[in-house]
Amino acid sequence: MIIETGRFGQLTVGNDETIVIPQGILGFPEYTRFCLIDPADDTLILWLQSLENPQVVFAVLEPKVFRVDYSAKLSALELRELKLDNVNQSAVLSILTIPEDITQMTANLKAPLVVNLKEQIAKQVVLQENEYSVKHLMFKELKTHLMTIRAQERAGAAAEDVVPSAVAIRDIPPSLTVKPLMA
């Protein structure tokens, strides 16, 4: 299908690039069909685009990029809702807030989006751990990670010119950050 986005214009999205979030994102329960868009830049940030409203889009990023010890502990009910028989078939994304001063960019570590890569369904879960914040400052860590990647790219082949496109959900590598919550 061809969708219109507010940020990236017209994009083609296939069934293998669609994510269903039955309960929606917190504050946006009416939108349940999304895709991930790779903006074809070098920030590592993806965009979770609503297929139902072109203006509803969220910046997202794998939290391990800026917090290597991050893990999302899910209850048995959350694992069932996600149809997640194997936690190694999941990806975890933090929703970002990107203000005008990007050095103040934050990630919501308390309520990540957990994606079942096999079933292409997701759920935003509110973690019970008190160690995670809804406004984790992370620009410094992201910048350091990007500098490392750029150094590796300079040592290897030149980057290709690419355009924004939807991401095939099954091509996303598992995060290996989802753990069952022990009673």
Keywords:
two-stranded antiparallel sheet, nine-stranded antiparallel β-sheet, mainly beta, 183 residues, globular
What does this structure look like?
The structure is a single chain. The protein has 2 helices and 13 strands; from the N terminus they run βββββββαββββαββ. With 183 residues, it is mainly beta. The protein has a single domain (2-175), classed as BH3618-like (Roll), CATH 2.30.290. Strands 3, 4, 5, 6, 8, 9, 10, 11 and 12 form a 9-stranded antiparallel sheet that branches. The chain has a two-stranded antiparallel sheet with strand order 1-2. A hairpin with a 7-residue loop joins β4 and β5.
At the first level of CATH, the class is Mainly Beta
Strand content: 25-35%
Amount of helix: 10-25%
Helix segment tally: 2
CATH architecture heading: Roll
Number of separate structural domains: 1
Overall outline: globular
What gyration radius follows from the Cα positions, in whole Å? Answer: 16 Å
Q: SSE order in H/E notation?
A: EEEEEEEHEEEEHEE
Output the CATH homologous superfamily. Answer: BH3618-like
Q: CATH topology, anyone?
A: BH3618-like
Q: Strand pairing plus helix content: what structural class?
A: mainly beta
Give average pLDDT, whole number. 90
SSE blueprint:
Layout: E1 2-5, E2 9-12, E3 18-20, E4 33-38, E5 46-50, E6 57-61, E7 72-74, H1 76-81, E8 90-97, E9 106-116, E10 121-124, E11 136-137, H2 139-155, E12 165-166, E13 178-180
Parallel strand pairs: 7-13
Antiparallel strand pairs: 1-2, 3-4, 4-5, 4-12, 5-6, 6-8, 8-9, 9-10, 9-11
